[in-house]
């Protein structure tokens, strides 16, 4: 009698490295989630979500002791805005998701309390949250931005000055609410900032999330938007300008977890100077329950000089065939010489033509902020970057 062999030859527990218990994560939704840093293994730099990050320079944030900095913010007054401090064991904490990496778990476990910003106005309000009083001491923060059902608000997070910060920003968008969250990083040259933005979007609600990263030595802002109810809409836009020796990283996750949800992701970046580095990773998951999904993501990078590096990795997982559409795109390259030639033919110098192309490239994202004063300031900051570059 012949016995059918059902196991791979040699694949025994004592020889295969115990792959049954250490198999790689197969889908984005299976990543470990925990508020306990002890649940995360030590970072080696080979992990899928850390392999492009200078982890050796982040040890104080990923595993060290942290001061609490949640209260180091200034919130502008507006109708329907309530600011309060809540304990980390409150039911109000964790509704948008738990940490998925060691840095976020370290912040979660050491911060003393979370600052909750509750938004209730049905008339469009703009709220500014400023943070400029941090130091180079390693610190943690936790902020909750909650949009009540049917509310309509723009929240602008302005970060400047010194920082050595790891933080979580929770965003809870109630049914039928419209919320725009703008995160602006204009840190000093040596600042380090690791941020996880977790969002849950309710039924027929709209979230527009915008990131603008200009300043800081190492900046890593990772938005995760969970479209958890029917008709939810999530849009994630970003603009960044990396200079010599600067590392700007954005890992975007869109989770379609309900029927008839929609998402759009568009990040644009410019890089100049030796060692300028940009990393963009876009993950879109369309789950089995997300029939009728409409999704698209793209990343565009413009390299202005030699010595720069841009990593652009779009990922798309689809678990159902019943969708309206899904796609992604990624490009990294130099100037389009035809554009430069066209502008020169109109009497514009080559240097000025190149500056105009960069401005136009990034302004598409910045204009989505919808605040003329802030848009003008960011355009001036980009202009300053260009004036200092070899293009000038």
TrEMBL record:
Belongs to the iron-sulfur cluster assembly SufBD family. InterPro entries: Fe-S_cluster_assembly_SufBD (IPR055346), SUF_FeS_clus_asmbl_SufBD_core (IPR000825), SUF_FeS_clus_asmbl_SufBD_sf (IPR037284), SUF_FeS_clus_asmbl_SufD (IPR011542). The gene is sufD. Residues 9-19 have a biased composition (Basic and acidic residues). This is Fe-S cluster assembly protein SufD. It comes from Leucobacter albus. PANTHER family: PROTEIN ABCI7, CHLOROPLASTIC (PTHR43575:SF1). It holds the Pfam family SUFBD_core. Residues 1-30 are annotated as: Disordered. It comes from the Bacteria. Residues 137-361 form the SUF system FeS cluster assembly SufBD core domain.
